Amino acid sequence: MTTFTRMDESTAEQWALIGAETTENQPRVAEGILAMLRSLATITDGFAVDQLTHSVQTAALAEDDGASDEIVVASLCHDIGKAISVHNHPEIAAAILGPYVSDDVSWMIRVHQDFQGRHYYAYFGGDPDAREQYRDHPAFDLAAQFADQWDQRAFDPDGPIPPLEHFEGRVREQFAVPFAL
Fold it and tell me: Where do the structural domains in the chain lie, given as residue ranges?
């Protein structure tokens, strides 16, 4: 344990200890993610399924289409921010995922609501073509695939709904080490 009470009084040796313990405790990140995912089971907000079911179903659809493990895990976690705030959940989810996924996948999560908005923004007086503002982004097609083929189709109580445990190993692996050190 370190003894400094102010960072400007710390030493390299103390920071080496903090770094080593942080690395040793990295598995708690995945366990925290899994706990946040489980908490989504309490959020329905009028949908036909709770948000955990929606998240698991989104990941299952991505998996069935042959998406990479990184994209399957991101699909599972895309609405994890709803555990904190529905209104800015994409930004929260992207911030959580950011250190553990590629920039394109993080961006896909950050903008997914505007892409999915094609299917409902008009009902709220919004622009259903909001995704077009991102047209020149290199991951535009990935975000469109995510929104149109997986996310917006994942509200079916009778659809593919594997248990969260089906994805736990991939979650632990994805969050084992930050993506870019």
Answer: 44-174
